Amino acid sequence: MRLTKLEHAALVLEQNGDRLYIDPGSFTTAITESVGTVAIVITHEHPDHWTPEQLKRIVDANPDVRIFGPAGVVAAVSDFAVELVAAGDTVEVGAFTLRFFGEKHAVIHSSIPVIDNVGVLVNDTLYYAGDSFTIPEGVAVDTLAAPAGAPWMKVSDVMDYVVAVAPKHVFPTHEMVLSRAGKDMSNARLTWAVEQGGGEFHALEPGDTLDL
Q: Rounded to whole angstroms, how far apart are CA atoms 202 and 69?
């Protein structure tokens, strides 16, 4: 399975000619080459994780694509046929097995409502928690997409999260809110955290790939 990191929180996975997109949002360059996409996962409704324009481009190129998201996404993405998923669900689509974990977005501030959010484990290999620190219980995570910067986190939070998950591999996501200096600082902290469990950090930039 090949992972390509796109800008911010968006990822694309490819296996046996099938493609899976995760969180193609407003901070991600327009996705124009998506033929072969069998599924899209939207972890939550915030626009940096999906936009109608991004979805329309993918759906137009792949009319049979299936879109998955929690209840908040089903309500927000009403112009598209989104299939409801929640913690504990498993879906088989094309070359991908998707297992879902967690229920809520991390708290940003007491003044801001907490929305629905799901994490997704792809082919028992890649885990991405969306905007949360949900740990997939009972899973030995091979590769973790770890948030590098967000209004809902500080670097100590993600360091503790990576140590708790203890994956073999980590790469940064959710980092378009950071300057180059901020990315470098976060990458250094994530490197330390994954190395505590004997894992390896991959400083992926948009367009970089990783074979899982």
A: 28
